[in-house]
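hey all, quick one before standup. I had two proteins in the batch that finished overnight and I want to keep them in one place so we stop losing track of which output belongs to which input. First protein below, input sequence then structure tokens straight from the run.
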Amino acid sequence: MRPLILAVLTLCSLVAVADEQWKPFPYDQSGYDYSGDKLRQAWPQLTRGFGSDYPFPDAEWVMKMATTYPKALEMTVTGNTGFTGKPEEAEIYAQKLQNVWRLMFKGDFAQAKKEGLALGVGGQIPAMFAQVVYAMFLVPNQDEKHRLLEEVIDYTDKAGELVQADTVAQFGRVYAKARLGEELSVPVVLNRGYTNQIPKELDALLAKQPQQPFALALYGGYEAGVIRKVGKLVGSMTYGVSADKMEGYFARSFKQSSNLPIGHYEYANALGYVYGDDEEAKVVQHLKEAVAIKPINAMEALEVAHAKELLKEHEQKVAQN
């Protein structure tokens, strides 16, 4: 079944607006212009981290979703989005939805959230995707970062069962949980149930798309993160994680797509978590691979910049030893 962007939101979610205090994207955006037909042409590459068949949200797709999921259509109508399911309205709605994705890829994250949520259920996915990226790379402090990630989880949970049909929504929720799980204390993570939820949700996502690069890399990072917090022995006996499984997930991710910056720096982090300084040369190698990738959207530009910072730290560490 093709993924579903028209996930159901509660009515209170439909009237949410973007945070006007969000920091602007700090780099040149001129290379991330996907106006007009450029978006469709670049779509397979822009969404390659989500697998090979994430659907382009054109009018035909909008009508198919409206017909297939009447409850999602009902919520879209209730949200006063201007789309009531009529074919003559689909093209206008699709153009607005495509523009939300353009804003997200360009790095106009606050505007992407605002315009996405204004479209009701149809715009939630790119809106929350923008929020995840902003939270991970541009948020000014950790408390705000956690709040935004928790909001992504809340939005997705309120969308109900239909959201499980969309692989970007699934990934966004479990990614937010994984990042929170890395930074929160073990008792808090256990109390929230993340240690059970994260592998369960990743398994469900990979059951749909066994070779999704983002999900595979996230699973590898999860395995490494558990080992980092509780050690290899407890991690294996209690949570079923291992270095071999971590390596396997990253290998599958790289086999599917080796030109995603986040994959390389996540693997570099995972190597440090699992092996300490023993794989320092491999850490540096993958960080160099990350910074060598030419970003094609704002998210990747932020990932490359982050990888550059990590590379500098590790090269200084090697020089001192």
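OK second protein, same deal, sequence then tokens:
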Amino acid sequence: MKKASKVIISCAVTGAVHTPTMSDALPITPAEISEQSIAAAEAGAAILHLHARDPETGYPSPAPDRFYEFLPAIKAGTDAVVNITTGGSTRMTVQERLAAALRAQPELATMNMGSMNFVFSGAARHYDTWKFPWERDYLLGSEDSIFANTFTQIEYSFRELGDARGTRFEFECYDIGHLYTLAHFADRGLAKPPFLVQCIFGILGGIGADPANLSHMITVADKLFGDDYYLSAFAAGRHQMSFAIQSTLAGGHVRVGLEDNLYIAKGELAKSNADQVGKVRRILTELGLEIATPTDARAMLQLKGAGNVAF
């Protein structure tokens, strides 16, 4: 693992799992997404991981036009690295999931490293009424869908988004096998170091949020990639902050945001994405760690620069 002297904080602003009923703070409209993104960057996030939603209903949207309703404002309002999802949601086709990134040509995009069950239906049992009629069925439907990321689809993303457009990737690894998949594409020369390996814990269908699992993921990644990768890690839900701290103590980076967890403390909803970024920054600073700026992140990850995107 490359152990940087500064910690990159990524903020996943809205995602495609949580629904509007769950928190009034979840950004839905373009104005909310751009305002919360800029505030998260001001709080210390060097990277902003972005999804789009229908502004009327909050339903996750893959439409490039939806992304362009907030991308220019974010670029104008902050120097943070924009990281556009190619994961979208399990209800979208791969073509839909890639469309926004192919058009926007960001510095960074996510790449999911394997097909999997991606289940988040458990949240449905906590609510009796919903703001929008789609929410309950959307959550329950995750039990009967596959999050598809085949080798053919992954290779297509490397060639069309990476080689053709100069975008680099945050490799989202939900289990040990996903690390081996990344190693396969590295051996073929499609994945190019330094790799930003985002280890994800606590999704039903992926590896569990047990601290021992993060240690094991690091052991395997060290064997596969040596010092050609940067570690980042997060856990969904209540384990968010503890995994952030474990990642940094191991020499890695962190991701927070309302995509992954709606709370700031036990039983207390976060007021914004900046709320979480500010908290993790305070903790890391008190541990004596320095926080990376967007310029630092670009240098570490060898990104093409904000002047070379298409928005």
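Flagging for whoever picks this up: The longest strand covers residues 195-201. Residues 6-308 form a domain with the TIM Barrel fold (CATH 3.20.20.70).
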